[in-house]
Design brief:
With 385 residues, this protein is mainly α. It is 51% helix and 6% strand. Helix 2 packs antiparallel against helix 3.
Length: 385
C-alpha cells in the first residue's frame, strides 16, 4: 500500500463522519461514538481545515454550533453531546478540561479560515465564557491551568496537575483568539516562555521564569530528551506525552541540543512509532496504584495497551507535523514509513484507535476519525519544507 492510498481512505472516512449535526467520532454502531465529541470533532475538523476540505469544514461548523448551544452556566463546553443537542456530558468521573481548550482552538481556526461572520456571532460569546472558566481553572491566576486526575482525553491514565498537553492547547487557543481580536500578546508571550523553560529544564534558564526551584533543579540534573508530561508542586514528571510534545513542537522552536536529544529519544521507541505515553507503567511502577483502579467499564491499560504505551496515530501524526515544523523532516518520514508498514502488517486494519506497543497489533474501536486525522497530519508533515 502506498501512503497516498491510505491518506485517501482517511479523507473518505472523515467525509463519512461529517453530518449536518457535526462530526461523529466513529461510524460504528455504538451510542457513545454517534455523538458530537469536543475533542474528536475539533481534531477531525482541524484536519479538514488544513487540507481545505469543504465537507469536513462544514461539519466542523455544525459541531461548533451544537457544542456551543450545550455550554453550561459556568462556561464549560461538554465533552460530548447527542447530535440533537440533548444529553450533554461534561465528563464521567471528573470533568474534562480539554473539551474547552479544543473548542476554542477549533472555533478560532474555523473563523480564521472561513471568515464566517454569522457563525462567529454565536461562537464569540461562547469562547469568552469558556475563557473565563479556564481562567478560573488556573486557581492562582499565574497562567497555567490545573487539570485533575482523569481530566482530559487520557481519562484512565495518571496524568494531572500542570499538564503540558492541556496548557499547550490552552495557549494555542489564546494565541488564535488574541490574533482575531487584535489584542496584545505580551502576557501570552511570557507564559509561553515560562512553559518552554519549565517543561524542558536547562542550565541557562532565567530565574524569574522557574516555577519551583528545587523541583526544577532536580529535573535539570536528571536530564531529559523531550518535554515533561506534567508538573506538580515538588515534582516534574519527566515521562513522554506524545500529544503534549506534539502541541509544544507546533508552537516552540527547539534549539539544536533539544533537536538532537529528541531525535535520540525517537530511536529508542518500538519501531520508531510514537506511543501516547512512555515509558510503560508496570505493576512495579510507583504510580501503578493510580492506574489499576481508574476505569469506568473495564481495565484496558495493561502494559503496552490503550493509554499505557499504546501508539495512537492521531497524536503520532500531530507529533510528526511538529517535528517537520522544527526541521526534523527525516524523523517524521521514518515514523510515517514505520506506521505504514505496521498498517500493512495488520490484516484487520480498520482505522483502530491505537497500536499495541509490544505486539504492534491494532486495538480499540474501529473507523475512528481520530486515527484518520492522524494520517492527514502525517501527510501534511511530509509536505512541510
Amino acid at each position: 500500500m502506498q501512503f497516498s492510498e491510505l491518506y485517501l481512505q482517511a479523507v473518505s472516512l472523515l467525509h463519512d463522519l461529517s453530518t449536518s449535526k457535526g462530526i461523529l467520532a466513529s461510524t460504528i454502531e455504538t451510542d457513545n461514538y454517534k455523538r458530537i465529541w469536543a475533542r474528536d470533532s475539533m481534531v477531525c475538523g482541524i484536519a479538514g481545515l488544513w487540507i481545505k476540505d469543504e465537507i469536513v469544514t462544514e461539519a466542523l461548523k455544525n459541531s461548533l454550533l451544537v457544542l456551543a448551544k450545550s455550554q453550561n452556566e459556568f462556561g464549560m463546553i461538554p465533552s460530548n453531546v447527542l447530535p440533537d443537542g440533548t444529553d450533554a456530558s461534561f465528563g464521567s468521573l471528573v470533568g474534562r478540561i480539554d473539551a474547552n481548550t479544543w473548542f476554542i482552538v477549533g472555533a478560532c481556526l474555523y473563523y480564521k479560515h472561513t471568515l464566517d461572520e454569522e457563525s462567529w456571532k454565536i461562537l464569540k460569546p461562547t469562547i469568552e465564557k469558556s475563557r473565563t472558566f479556564l481562567n478560573a481553572a488556573e486557581f492562582n491566576n499565574k497562567g497555567w491551568i490545573y487539570t485533575p486526575l482523569s481530566g482530559n482525553w487520557a481519562d484512565e491514565y495518571p496524568i494531572h496537575g500542570y499538564t503540558l498537553y492541556d496548557n499547550m492547547l490552552r495557549l494555542w487557543g489564546e494565541k488564535e483568539w488574541l490574533a482575531i481580536e487584535g489584542k496584545s500578546t505580551s502576557q501570552l508571550d511570557f507564559i509561553l516562555k515560562k512553559t518552554k523553560v519549565n517543561f524542558w529544564p536547562s542550565k541557562n534558564a532565567e530565574t524569574e521564569l522557574i516555577y519551583q526551584n528545587p523541583a526544577f533543579q532536580k529535573a535539570m540534573e536528571k536530564g531529559s530528551k523531550h518535554f515533561s508530561a506534567f508538573i506538580l508542586p515538588g515534582k516534574h514528571d519527566s515521562r513522554f506525552d506524545a500529544a503534549g510534545n506534539a502541541l509544544a513542537l507546533l508552537q516552540f522552536q527547539l534549539n539544536e541540543p533539544q533537536k538532537k536529544h529528541l531525535s535520540e529519544f525517537i530511536e529508542t521507541l518500538p519501531q520508531k512509532l510514537i506511543p501516547a505515553f512512555w515509558p510503560i507503567i508496570t505493576k512495579e511502577s510507583e504510580d501503578w496504584n493510580l492506574l489499576e483502579g481508574n476505569y469506568s467499564f473495564s481495565f484496558k491499560n495493561h502494559p503496552g495497551d490503550f493509554h499505557n504505551g499504546g501508539i495512537w496515530p492521531v497524536w503520532m501524526g500531530l507529533f510528526c507535523l511538529g517535528l517537520s515544523k522544527n526541521g526534523l523532516d527525516s524523523e517524521a518520514k521514518k515514523i510515517t514509513s514505520s506506521f505504514l508498514q505496521t498498517v500493512e502488517n495488520n490484516t484487520d486494519w480498520a482505522f483502530q484507535e491505537y497500536i499495541h506497543a509490544n505486539s504492534l497489533n491494532v486495538g480499540g474501536k474501529t473507523q475512528m476519525g481520530y486515527t484518520a486525522s492522524g494520517i492527514v497530519f502525517m501527510k501534511l508533515a511530509m509536505e512541510v519544507s
